[in-house]
Amino acid sequence: MSAAEASTRRDSFGALETHLRARRESGAKLLVPYVTGGYQGWQRAVEAAAAAGADAIEIGVPFSDPVMDGPVIQQASTAALADGATPASVLEEARELDTGVPHAVMTYYNLCHHQGHERFASALLDAGVCAAILPDLPYVEAGSWLEAAAETGLEAILLAAPTTPEHRLADLCGASRGFVYAVGLLGVTGERTALARTATEIAARCLAVTDRPVLTGVGIGSPSQAVEACEVSDGVIIGSAVVRTLMSDGPEAVGELVASYRTALDHG
Amino acid sequence: MAAETDGPTSSHRSVMGEPTTDGRFGDFGGRFVPETLVAACEELEAAFREAWADPAFVAEFETILRDYGGRPSPLTECRNLSSQLGVRLLVKREDLNHTGSHKINNVIGQALLAQRMGKTRLVAETGAGQHGVATATAAALLGMECKVYMGAVDVDRQALNVFRMRLLGSEVESVQSGSRTLKDAVNEALRDWVATVENTHYCLGSVMGPHPYPWMVRTFHHILGDEAAAQCKDLTGGDPDVVVACVGGGSNAAGIFSGFADGDARLVGVEPAGGAAVGRGVPGVVHGMTSYLMQDEVGQVMEAESISAGLDYPGVGPEHAYLAAIGRAEYPSVTDDEVVEAFTLMSRAEGIIPALECAHALAWIVRAAPEIQGQTVLMNLSGRGDKDVDQMMDVLGMHGIVS
Predict the structure, then answer these.
(1) Helices (H), strands (E): how many in chain B?
(2) Which residues constitute the domain of residue A33?
(3) What percent of chain B stands above pLDDT 70?
(4) CA B8 – CA B24 distance, rounded (Å)
(5) Chosen CATH of B23-66+103-213 out of 2.30.30.100, 3.40.50.1100, 3.30.300.20, 3.40.50.720
(6) CATH code of the domain covering residue A54
(7) Of B203, B190, B231, B222, whose CA–CA distance to B34 is shortest?
(8) What is this model's ipTM?
(9) Which residue does chain A place closest to B24, by CA atoms?
(10) Is the pLDDT score of A3 beyond 60?
(11) Chain B residues contacting A, CB < 8 Å?
């Protein structure tokens, strides 16, 4: 590709990907904490996480049937729904956030399907969210969503799994926007006692076929596991550890937790 | 009269034929699962196509269903109910199968397939417990490990089936998440499968879920529709005027409809009033498929409410959504009160205690009888009511019907 084309492509990156690429080029490992939107104290948790050095924030919009989530995030989702959280209420609260880093939403496809792809994407953008992750919408079914997201300017993040066949991986990574979410293990979200071997394998496979930032998530439960994952990966997503801390110790403790990951990633 | 029914292999122009390559029946179906499971679904589809084209596999399937499962199940003409209702009521006796319902067809098929694929472990969801018991049975027969997920609410109201599964050597996990019913058991089984896909097959219990399940499960149940079509022809000289079955996910209805979909018979799938996914007609995506789905105004999946645990499901198989959309089948609903009356009616009039699920089908026939006088009605009696007697002792005691 020519320099002009490369430049055009670079300019076409969305806010999240532009930010993550710049951070990566500066030598940083990327850290993206997940917080369940609508859970009591979630906005303060997001702000504390950002202040503690998060590169972007993933905001969960609670869904009734979170099939990719383990017990911790399920519990937070159920509690948030019981408190009356809706997609609109979480986005309204997300709009009020001032963190200085990009926000992505993670939720399940039916909430997007129900509202309609374009309206859903626009509602996210209106709330200052620049990307979305829909873990039950795999690449093979994502065509019309990817088109709608591209037209509205929302970055649609795709997940790559250890079971994704080689013949699909390059296309998947190419179609993803923002970053590629490398699912670190065979399983649902949750902390594990050790980093799965699959975590570094899938990140390496993705990085071999894309120059897009590759972040590893699912199964990262400690700063040392994050460091281990980042020996290959561009960064990590930490979800259950954050949400468990929010539920047991409150939003300020989330800041301390994220700071411990930041320090570990910055200093090895 | 309808033409000779062809076998499933020659049904390429059938109303209930093969879905498209992306697993669609019209606008419905698909493969909406986490990326981790996409490859497993593709592998399953390839294995199913290959096995179903292998005469040795089909012969083993049919032999087990005959010698172990008790097929073919009889067709019973219900003379007492017929004279009471003014219709000619024929009942396909899936309640007489081993394990007491039609579910055995599907689990034998899937367990044989799983074994052929080298999987050593089965996971399953269950509502009323019929599919769980059937899966536990197949696992025992074929020497496989088995874990069944069952909503905590259902564990309470189907204690006997919980015991049966454990007796058969399966682990039963009481699911505490969400509404603690069938939909949550499906979520939990999917979460298990996401983590264990390398050695585990998810033995899904209905014509739902990601492609190829809706098509594969219906194909394994096609045998009951074919039998019923042949039996009706022997008895009456042709197809019935109406074919009726209850619909939760819709496997027994899919099985019996598939024997008649290319003929002229009216097809009626009866939903519970508290779980009328097709009746409400709102499309949604959950559990791997696009179909009709009960959901609130923002798209959160609603809890179905039915006296019958087996129909307590907010979605429906995508092929039923398609049959409804093209107008080939209709999906009325009946209330719990109508179901309780039908349950009692069949017990007393025919000496057959139906599963509460099938009592939905009879409840519709009772209601519709004035409009279908003199017609031949085929009802799929998809399961026996033994599992429900404990629950019905309370219900009928309260209603004062049994003193």
Answers:
(1) 15, 15
(2) 23-267
(3) 96
(4) 18
(5) 3.40.50.1100
(6) 3.20.20.70
(7) B190
(8) 0.94
(9) A141
(10) no
(11) 22, 30-40, 177-178, 183-184, 187, 190-191, 194-198, 283-287, 290, 293, 295, 298-302
